[in-house]
Amino acid sequence: MHPYRTHNCGEIRKEHIDQRVRLSGWVHRIRDHGGIIFLDLRDHFGITQVVVNLDKEFYRDAEDWRTESVITFTGVVIHRDEDTYNPRIPTGEVELSAEEMTVQSTAEIPPFPVADESSYPESTRLSYRFLDLRRETLHRNIITRSNVIADIRARMTKLGFHDIQTPILTSSSPEGARDYLVASRLHPGKFYALPQAPQQFKQLLMVAGFDRYFQIAPCFRDEDARADRSPGEFYQLDLEMSFATQDDIFAAVEDVMTGVFTSFTDFAVDDSPFKRIPYKESLLRFGNDKPDLRNPLELIDVSEIFRDSDFNAFASLVKKGGVVRAIKVPGIVDQSRKFFDDMIEFTQSVGGKGLGYIGWKDTEVRSPIAKFLTEEALAQLKTVGAIEDGDVMFFICDKESKACEIGAAVLKELGDRLDLLEKDTFRFCWIVDYPMFELNRDTRKIGFSHNPFSMPQGEMNALLEQDPLEILAYQYDLVCNGVELSSGAIRNHRPDVMYKAFEIAGYKKSVVDEKFGGMIKAFKLGAPPHGGIAPGIDRIVMLITGSPNIREVIAFPMNQQAQDLMMNAPSSVSERQLRDLHIQLKLPKKHAKSDQS
């Protein structure tokens, strides 16, 4: 017999009754019924109930057993009494009558119970992440993640993509987020950077003639944490295709996304092709470029209706270039006054000056602002909003960028408060036609708005003839249920177009040659038209598992301050290590004091 187990704790069934088996696992729960002990033994595969009777020699050791100790039991599988069946676990009709026991390791009192799925402080959970990972939900999430990645690899291979690894130590890039730097011992004063993405390498693979590349790629960015973004590192399905149009890339990604989401959930999933929404239209209708299409509410531009109205709070701002955005909500005119007051308070909490509203009930108009509007203006609002009896229209007035930001937040809040979101479904869309350049609000200089390696629509002619702020790029985002899964683009594979694009963004030719020399050199030796995208693995798994935070689908995440509390990283290093790397520290005073202490 195997020294540890003949079966795992999740596979014992009625067909094993009367068989002698051996199980090993962690003590999940213990129940002493006086003369007989019931113990739930847990491993990766499941839970089996073990029965220890008073006549067993090791029964007296039971008082020393603690949950999370690792024990091996040998015994006979027996049938449970019908009134003790446990339908919640697959092994619930049987139990192991223990005849022998070996304690493999004894656990101290754990900082929180594994059998309890209750919430505990994040710092405690992350400090004891190995223990947290034993809990059912988190353990299942990590297994789902593994299975999702395996499924993605199979689908990508079937589509003709080749899995190729790219370097982790590379050069720093002037674009994007802040780099993580690694000092070079052999080249004093110089640094490697951990890749924010394999962007240049995957394009060089296309120049090298590999045609279709993919990788489950680790990416490193020194940026703050968010609910859907882990600080430090994350993983993405990185892919690139040669001689491919935007439609070709969309088709490949839609094939993989619909397949994966259908395989791992019971929710409805959009069929291919996904909806395509131009960037400007998305801002106008949803206030941002990551719309949640489960929400039936949208923004409507009603600026002109208010321009010449007597409602000066709106009219004066519209005349100065501001906008008025409306949201029509069907059938809520009889909501309490508190509901409307709460929505006004919410709008103010996200930066709005307030939230106007008009409700229509029979022949009555209910609104604190209706008295400032003519009958004609009210009729126009009814027409624009397709208003029916019982509907309410909310209004946001501000500068356009601010109105978009506030409008997006109000749309989400109304959808959540009124429970309007479509249930049990994944709604995908592509946001397309991003602007190539944008104006920096602080410096008033033109810079890249999305991806500097994108091909402008119209190529060189657009760069030479159009206002830079009017140029669109072959750039696109994939969005699901309001979560941005990915950004991508058709690449700029022509050196002359790339030099011109960077020139508009304020980079001299010498800077382009220095920072992107490898790519420019490659493009001068024959580059195919190509494009790609990189859906985030962490966000995909977060959506599939319904997790509220991305840390719930990562095995060993950092906290919001980019610290690994379990491994105590980042940590100080020795003077010798610093000398080897030719580094001398010059810390801010407060850090220097704490370091000395």
Layout: helices, strands, pairs:
Layout: E1 20-32, E2 36-43, E3 46-53, E4 70-79, E5 94-105, H1 122-127, H2 129-132, H3 136-158, E6 162-163, E7 181-183, E8 191-193, H4 199-207, E9 212-221, E10 232-242, H5 246-264, E11 268-269, E12 275-278, H6 279-286, E13 299-301, H7 303-307, H8 312-319, E14 323-329, H9 337-349, E15 356-361, E16 364-366, H10 375-384, E17 392-398, H11 400-417, E18 425-426, E19 428-432, E20 437-439, E21 446-448, H12 459-465, E22 475-480, E23 483-490, H13 495-504, H14 509-515, H15 517-523, E24 530-533, H16 537-545, H17 575-580, H18 589-596
Parallel strand pairs: 3-5, 6-9, 11-18, 12-19
Antiparallel strand pairs: 1-2, 1-4, 2-3, 4-5, 7-8, 9-10, 10-24, 13-14, 14-17, 15-16, 15-17, 19-22, 20-21, 22-23, 23-24
Helix pairs in contact: 3-5, 3-16, 4-15, 12-13
What this model shows, in words?
The protein is an alpha+beta fold and about 600 residues long. It is built from 18 helices and 24 strands. The strands form six sheets. The chain has an eight-stranded mixed β-sheet, sandwiched between helices. A five-stranded mixed β-barrel has the order 1-2-3-5-4. A five-stranded antiparallel β-sheet has the order 13-14-17-15-16. Strand 2 and strand 3 form a beta hairpin. The protein is globular, with a radius of gyration of 30 Å.
